[in-house]
Design goal:
Blueprint: H1 4-12, H2 23-36, H3 52-60, H4 77-87, H5 101-108, H6 121-144, H7 156-159, H8 165-174, H9 178-185, H10 190-208, H11 213-227, E1 237-241, E2 246-250, E3 261-268, E4 278-287, E5 291-292, H12 295-308, H13 312-315, E6 318-321, H14 334-342, E7 346-349, E8 360-363, E9 372-373, E10 387-389, E11 393-395, H15 398-405, H16 414-422, E12 427-440, E13 444-446, E14 452-454, H17 461-471
Parallel strand pairs: 1-12, 3-10, 9-11
Antiparallel strand pairs: 1-2, 2-3, 3-11, 4-8, 4-12, 5-7, 6-7, 8-9, 13-14
Helix pairs in contact: 2-3, 2-6, 3-8, 4-6, 5-6, 6-9, 8-9, 10-11, 15-16
Length: 476
């Protein structure tokens, strides 16, 4: 990684042209030069374009006067608080070097006018801008992640507005609340706070036992992934943790963090049908659903089976469907096979106890067509490792989950749910209020009692994120 420390001479220009006559003007000019420069090392950090407008607005509103220095050119209280926050980013699983803390610390010692190699007024302006660069990036990383996924979790309706970092930082400096601003930008989740506490404990243990270092890294990566989540708000929501093979239903993001409901799940196979990370809103439940066989399963599994056994559809209670859901029966005639091969026809499984989705399907529309559902084969829940599905998530107790989801929906008691699941037709229940569903991936979880549980990295996502985090803010 080429850090700012190696390129500092390019920015500070210690051998540059003579300084302007007035120190204040010189400082302001240096700030404006750094913030508006067309090419400078930190502007080429991959994520920096997200923040350049914030810095421009921040300093324009101050007529390019320093944000972190007092009238004598020393760090003021806000500057000391900002630098202290950056020194302690390890508490959030981040690396101080990524925010050029060693360089900023070294320069801060030269802010004293009595120092042998004291910074010039112009260099003080450059230092002030560089501290702002580091701090705005830090706020952005706390809010949205250091290495967020290429595709944000959740649709636009769940993302919420982007924070106004310039206005927030200016207000925090004016109100002497820089440290509180950083905590406000971090996820407001009980699990995030618990993970931070656990990270400190496990770091202390790892200091005396090197084999525990991988556990520390799992906690750091867990914190990073939580930063990817947009604010859920204080509402009920569901979390599926893929490597834990567990579903948790929460009454609120606040409180003690205890789940109202917990059950085992089966997720996508690690080899070739992995369940993706998602954040979407559940909108309806189908009791006694049809299973519309995905095209990939039709091509890879059902068509070969039909060529071997003409009774395959009948034996599995399946039928061929054409345009506008026109049912064509379960006989694989040559014309039917040709239509299936060309994608003109499709196959679905009729509702019932043998249906692959079981007796309930929980739908949160998404591009991957992943949903929660029951299963007619509960035996796999007895396994410790449960990655057996084609990508969707099978839940152990669909009736219990439906009861929790619909508990505030008039007329949907447990008795009515059981009746709908035992009925003869498909019943769709639209949720009166869409409910967030987080299909997540974390190999470290902290329970409210402080117990930390670690899980295997079944999809290798930790290894991939670890490499990306260690690469740091590279300059091509």
């Amino acid at each position: 990684m080429r850090s700012l420390a190696r390129m500092l001479p390019l920015l500070l220009g210690l051998a540059a042209a003579p300084l302007p006559v007035r120190a204040q003007d010189s400082t302001a000019t240096a700030i404006r030069t750094v913030v508006t420069a067309a090419r400078h090392p930190w502007s080429r950090y991959p994520e920096f374009p997200r923040f350049i407008d914030d810095l421009l607005r921040l300093y324009t509103a101050r007529a390019d006067q320093p944000l972190w220095l007092d009238g004598a050119g020393r760090l003021d209280r806000a500057g000391q608080a900002a630098l202290a926050e950056l020194r302690n980013v390890r508490d959030d699983g981040l690396d101080p070097v990524d925010y050029d803390v060693p360089t900023l610390d070294s320069l801060a010692r030269r802010l004293d006018p009595q120092a042998a190699n004291a910074l010039t007024p112009a260099d003080r302006g450059r230092f002030d801008a560089l501290l702002s660069v580091a701090y705005v990036r830090y706020l952005g990383h706390l809010h949205a992640g250091r290495r967020p996924p290429a595709v944000p979790l959740g649709g636009p309706e769940l993302q919420g507005p982007r924070p106004d970092y310039a206005a927030a930082l200016a207000a925090a400096v004016a109100g002497d609340s820089v440290a509180r601003l950083a905590r406000a930008m971090a996820p407001q989740l009980v699990q995030y706070r618990n993970l931070r506490l656990a990270l400190a404990r496990w770091r202390a243990l790892a200091a005396d036992s090197a084999p525990l270092a991988p556990r520390v890294r799992q906690l750091e990566l867990a914190l990073e992934r939580l930063r990817w989540l947009p604010p859920i708000g204080r509402q009920r929501f569901i979390v599926v943790n893929i490597p834990a093979f567990e579903l948790f239903a929460f009454d609120s993001t606040g409180g003690a963090g205890l789940p109202a409901l917990q059950m085992p799940v089966i997720v996508g196979r690690a080899l070739n049908t992995r369940t993706p990370m998602l954040l979407q809103a559940m909108r309806y439940i189908d009791f006694r659903p049809y299973w519309n066989v995905p095209r990939s399963i039709l091509v890879k599994e059902i068509l070969p089976a039909l060529r071997k056994n003409a009774n395959y559809l009948r034996r599995n209670d399946m039928e061929v469907v054409g345009a506008r859901d026109r049912v064509l029966g379960d006989t694989p005639t040559p014309a039917v096979l040709q239509g299936l091969e060309r994608g003109e026809l499709r196959v679905r499984q009729r509702p019932g106890p043998a249906n692959s989705l079981g007796l309930a399907k929980f739908v949160f529309p998404n591009a991957a067509d992943v949903y929660l559902h029951g299963t007619p084969n509960p035996g796999l829940f007895a396994r410790t490792r449960r990655d057996f599905s084609h990508g969707c998530v099978r839940v152990f107790d669909p009736a219990g989950l439906a009861e929790w989801v619909l508990r505030d929906q008039p007329g949907w008691s447990r008795a009515r749910i059981d009746s709908a699941m035992a009925g003869k037709t498909t019943t769709r229940v639209l949720l009166s209020k869409p409910m967030p569903v987080v299909v997540f991936y974390t190999t470290a979880v902290v329970w409210p009692d402080g117990r930390t549980v670690f899980y295997p990295d079944i999809y290798g996502h930790d290894a991939t994120l670890d490499r990306a985090m260690r690469a740091g803010p590279t300059v091509p």
